[in-house]
Write a structure and sequence with these properties.
This protein has 224 residues and is of the alpha+beta class. The protein has five helices and 13 strands. It has a seven-stranded antiparallel β-sheet, with helices on one face. The longest helix has 12 residues, at 126-137. The protein is globular. The protein starts with a strand and ends with a strand.
Amino acid sequence: MCGIVGAIANRDVSPVLLEGLRRLEYRGYDSAGMAVLTNGSIDRVRRTGKVSELSAALDQSALIGELGIAHTRWATHGIPAENNAHPHICNDRVAIVHNGIIENFEELKAKQSKQGFSFTSDTDTEVIAHQIVFYLDQGSSLNEAVSKTIKDLKGAYALGVIDKNDPDKLIAARSGSPLVIGIGVKGNFIASDVQALLKETQEFIFLENGDIAEITRDAINILD
């Protein structure tokens, strides 16, 4: 059972993300990772094994920023390996975390390969990141790109998406896999379980199937 945590706030969110992953360890996983927007670029650390392994790596290579996403993965497509761990990044621009299974990922992967996208993992998740970037390159906003992408997906998903060119926004979407928004003070959060966010807030919004949420530091806009 994979776990998602995401945050956007007026402070460094890395401790929030790491604590959220620790609180999701009960779900079972084989790897963990985190991506944070730092000085205009997305920095990422991933490790196989326990969250403690990720924590030790972060002690050596700290991620500091006000926008980020994190994930614990249970292998479905692709073996437990660092390159298969989330978050996945496309073209150094968009990072995503994903719970669920994309049933038509092979079809999308074949199409994206012809479009010039390269793949660094064996996961079904990576095609989602590529598809979002494809629509961004066509001129769509981040909200529009995610909306168009989920229409291309067959299967279940809960998504957290960040774009280095849109640094004041965290996008969440779900269908068939749970995702919750935590409402904080000078910051907002997402997670696959309220347990991940109880240290930050006691106020939650539970997304419904088909919802897309645009989340900033002080506002939440949900489209169904």
